[in-house]
Amino acid sequence: MKNIIFVLTIFVVSTSCYAQVNEISERQFYKQGDWEFGFSSNIGSSSVQTMGPHSWTLTNTLHYSDYYEVTENWIYLNLGVSTGFYIVNGLSIEPELDINSYADGWSVTILGNLHYTFDLQQTNIYPYVKLGYGLSNDPENSDGLFEALNFKTINAGAGVKFMYFSELAIRMEINYRNLNGSNTFYPDTPDSYKTETTSSIVSVLIGISILL
Questions:
Q1: Tell me: the pLDDT tens digits for 134-188?
Q2: Average pLDDT for residues 66-80, to the nearest whole number?
Q3: Separation CA 119–CA 171 (nearest Å)
Q4: Residue at 24 is within a domain
Q5: What string of DSSP letters covers the chain?
Q6: Please, which pLDDT band fits residue 20 given cuts at 50, 70 and 90?
Q7: Is residue 22 part of a domain?
Q8: What domain range is 172 assigned to?
Q9: Which residue has the higher pLDDT, 150 or 97?
Q10: Rounded Cα–Cα distance for residues 130 and 117 (Å)
Q11: Residue scoring higher pLDDT (50 or 93)
Q12: CA torsion sign, 51 to 55 to 57 to 63?
């Protein structure tokens, strides 16, 4: 009797798993007209390089004959949301909004990504790549979270999506960002000066995608 119950249990579990995988595989994902909503979190490291005047003369004309260069390394954390619309099969336009923590402060990033998802036949694993451009602010020299979006930002990533349900995927990604911009201190005064900052960020993304 115990053997029969054991065999029946294995049969029911196997049938349920097959039905779920079959249901997922029968649906075609990431096709023209589909929507994809993403929620993600990143953790990584950033290298922030700042150049500015080392000394200057407070006279009618400032002299920037001597510049300093400082490189700092910070832990990078990120929370992001995105909305993708597939204009053709596999290719989507993806606006993205991120809240970042690095360089001893908070910042915001607004991006526009091109996102391509590869459809491997007979599998629930979907590799993807993305490339985007947008604006960020400097967490150390911003009056507010959405103020002074003056840092040009390049965003690139490659990862995989694991289809878990027919409307839900788990995402994992390696992400790279490059931010470049400047800050002006004491503007419109004789003491005005400018610094140039470049940030390189490498992080690991974990998130989910909801498909409609």
A1: 999 887 766 666 677 889 999 999 999 999 888 899 999 999 999 999 877 777 7
A2: 87
A3: 15
A4: no
A5: -HHHHHHHHHHHHHHHHHHHHHHHHHS--S-TT-EEEEEEEEEEEEEEEEEEEEE---SSS----EEEEEEEEEEEEEEEEEEEEEEETTEEEEEEEEEEEETTEEEEEEEEEEEEE---TT-SEEEEEEEEEEEE--TTS-SSTTS---EEEEEEEEEEEEEEETTEEEEEEEEEEEEEEEEEESTTSTT-EEEEEEEEEEEEEEEEEEE-
A6: very low
A7: no
A8: 29-211
A9: 97
A10: 9
A11: 93
A12: negative
CATH of residue 58: 2.40.160.20
CB count in 10 Å sphere of residue 179: 26
Q: Decide: residue 202, CB within 10 A, 0-12 exposed, 13-18 middle, 19+ buried.
A: middle
* Distance separating alpha carbons of residues 69 and 52, to the nearest angstrom: 7
Q: How many domains does the chain have?
A: 1
Contact, 202 vs 190, CB < 8 A? no
Q: Can you read off the two tokens belonging to residue 183?
A: 């800050």
Give the C-alpha separation, 150 to 142, whole Å: 10
Cα–Cα distance, 136 to 106 (Å, whole number): 11
